């Protein structure tokens, strides 16, 4: 009998169990939302702890990196953030992040210390827009521009990371991103092969 009571308590306090539903409006694709965030990075997930991930920022697109680890807090209670499983260890992403600047009442549970709203000066990522793009090789995919709401993996042609960086820097338009995301894959492959040949990567 006692073990059943303990099991019920453990399940009630279990990390990842939502006690309220997330409710938010879709804020737009990456091209719409990134400018309103504090930090945009191309990074690799190097550690997972509780409902947070640590990133190795391989390329800073905008903002200032923290002096210590770059920690991003994910789904917790009713806060509209992506699930932890969205970002596996070793995966690479372009992320538009918001800095956590104040404590939130009820944001820390001593019974689950590794699961919380997040620490001040760490970062959080929203689920309510195209706040992340999957990065593989030299290109990214995701809800980049003019994509369906709530679809974080729409069908599209991968777009070069260097083009994303240029957009964040204000050097190219969202129209250029849209054109690249709708480019014929065969033409893109030909262009990449030509670039590699000119660099001397191929015989």
SSE succession? HHEEEEEEEEHHH
Would you identify the regions where 5 or more consecutive residues have pLDDT less than 50?
A: 1-19
Distance N to C terminus: 73 Å
From the spread of the alpha carbons, the general shape counts as globular
Our estimate of the beta-strand percent is 15-25%
| Relative helix content | 10-25%
> What is the alpha-carbon Rg in Å?
19 Å
DSSP E strands, number:
8
Question: Total number of helical segments?
Answer: 5
User: Strand count, sense and closure of the main sheet?
Assistant: 5 strands, mixed, barrel
Mean pLDDT: 86
The main sheet orders its strands as 1-2-3-5-4
Features:
203 residues, alpha+beta, 5-stranded mixed barrel, 5 helices, 23% helix
Structure, described:
Strands 1-2-3-5-4 form a five-stranded mixed β-barrel. Mean pLDDT is 86; it is low at 1-19. It is an alpha+beta fold. It is globular. The chain has one domain (13-199). It is built from five helices and eight strands, in the order ααββββββββααα. The chain starts with a helix and ends with a helix. Residues 1-20 form the signal peptide.
Give the helices and strands, then pairings.
Layout: H1 2-13, H2 30-33, E1 39-49, E2 52-62, E3 70-73, E4 92-99, E5 123-124, E6 132-136, E7 139-142, E8 159-160, H3 161-168, H4 174-181, H5 185-199
Describe the structure concisely.
The chain is an alpha+beta fold and 203 residues long. 23% of the residues lie in helices and 23% in strands.
């Amino acid at each position: 009998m006692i073990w059943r009571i303990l099991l019920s308590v453990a399940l009630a306090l279990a990390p990842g169990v939502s006690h309220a539903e997330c409710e938010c409006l879709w804020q737009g694709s990456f091209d719409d939302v990134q400018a309103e965030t504090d930090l945009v990075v191309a990074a690799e997930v190097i550690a997972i702890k509780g409902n947070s991930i640590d990133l190795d920022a391989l390329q800073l697109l905008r903002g200032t990196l923290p002096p210590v680890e770059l920690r991003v807090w994910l789904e917790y209670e009713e806060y509209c953030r992506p699930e932890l499983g969205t970002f596996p260890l070793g995966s690479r992403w372009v992320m538009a992040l918001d800095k956590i600047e104040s404590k939130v009442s009820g944001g820390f549970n001593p019974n689950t210390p590794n699961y919380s709203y997040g620490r001040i000066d760490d970062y959080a990522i929203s689920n309510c827009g195209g706040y992340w793009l999957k990065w593989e090789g030299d290109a990214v995919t995701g809800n980049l521009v003019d994509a369906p709401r709530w679809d974080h993996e729409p069908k599209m042609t991968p777009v070069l990371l260097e083009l994303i960086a240029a957009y964040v820097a204000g050097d190219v338009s969202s129209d250029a991103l849209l054109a690249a995301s709708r480019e014929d894959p065969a033409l893109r492959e030909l262009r990449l092969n030509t670039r590699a040949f000119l660099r001397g990567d191929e015989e």
